[in-house]
Fold this protein.
Amino acid sequence: MMAPRGLAIVLLAALTVPVSAKDVGMELMIEMTDALHRLNYSGTLVHIKGADLNTLRISHEYIDGVEKEVISSLNESQESVSRQSQPFSLSQVPDSIEVMEKVYSLDVGTIKKVADRQCQIVIARPKDKMRYLQKYCIDSLTKLPLAYSLIDNNHNVVEQFTFTSVEISEPNPDQLEKAYASVASAAPQTLLGSLQPSGDWTIEALPQGFTFGKVRASGQVGRKADDTEHFVVTDGLSSVSVFISPITTAQPENMSGISSGALNVLTSQKNNHRITLVGEVPKGTMQRIFTGLHYRGVN
Amino acid sequence: MSQTTKQEYLSALLDGEAGSFEQHRLCDALDSDTEMQTKLANYALIGEAMRNQQQTARVGPSFLAGIQEALKDEAIPSPELVESTPNVIPLPAKRKPLWPAKVAGYAVAASVVAVAAVSLQNYFTAVEPAQTIASVAEPAVPVVAQAEPKAPVVQVQKEVAQLTTVRASFAPAAEPVYGIPDAAMRGMIDDYVAQHFQYASSNTLMPAVRAVSYSTDFR
């Protein structure tokens, strides 16, 4: 006969709703995205791409209710990027997550220590070879990503960054309230919806899991002054920008490309147009997108 | 033993450079470590293939003949009948297997040959991708002719040749060659990359980190 203690364990196990690693991973990813935009943090991080190592100083804070991020290279004293972002809203997240689930499986790994802080490993494992494996170490306390790496199909780390020191704090509640108030008023205009190529161009059979990305109203995506068309395809975690511009002078029809860590750039020609693809996906995926582009206009 | 050390020791063992202490240690480790056993088998196969790269035909007959010879000596189990006594209830005699043991043996031999052929093929793929299929598949026919092997072996050779053909049809297309963009093109690319980072902020983690890092590249 089963002892009362054993029976209690069985009942408890039966009543407990199973929480899958996928659900936990998804929750952590959403919290991480929020933390990246919501928290104040500053620190030093190392960015490694192949044999290149770059040490960067990063600071992120809210000033007058505006999200401000400054990143400077400690290797090259003059290099820095400062940008002000529109306040971030979690309403932007679900679309990406939904898309992402189709092509990545999420695993939750062990607890590690990065920059003297405990963090949880979360792995977004691609279900095909069209994208990189993404591995995060998410701060157990604040959910800020402390380390991040992108791994290719051959198990090579193509790019990684890791904090060597970091200070994290909650923003001043007044600042955050101000920021959220502006989100509430700006929300209807923040995203314009999926932007597809204009009538002259079409893409047949995007790689599995990729869809046309939503476009920020503040961004300059779409048709530009120099008649360059720009649209974005995304799988929820990685995105590829496609730029199409008419060629006015004769140019050699060769395909050229550069790589910087996980970032690949390919440029070639089709129907008297220069096509340039920029994105954090393998070259083969970009080649597939390029091949699928078809011109429907008149030359 | 770390992975690197294991590989180094195995390599030393095959090259005859391992000392007696390492040999004993490796033999002990090989008893229980299946990964090491596989690695040793692979290294031995690669070594054998390298030594006979120009004489592939020699590998086949001796290898196949050896297997056939071993199978010839293999005893075929016969059913044992127990005499019936009042205290002993006889079990029904073992049914004669549908496939004789030799056939099973040939199946094993076939698997070994197929694996060996595919492994060799993989090895040569890594060395000379353009000549792979021809260099492995072609010598298979003379081998059969010289050794006058029995029917199952001929069948195996045919299957290996078929495998090779299937593999050839699935061979990946050559990757396109990308040139290096000139200075004018680089200016345009830099502009596009900046725009990509600006947009990608909702998808890609810390795009500004990549932006700064990218700006320090190609100098």
Observations:
- The mean pLDDT of chain A is 80.
- The longest strand of chain A covers residues 157-169.
- The radius of gyration of chain A is 22 Å.
- The longest helix of chain A spans residues 21-38.
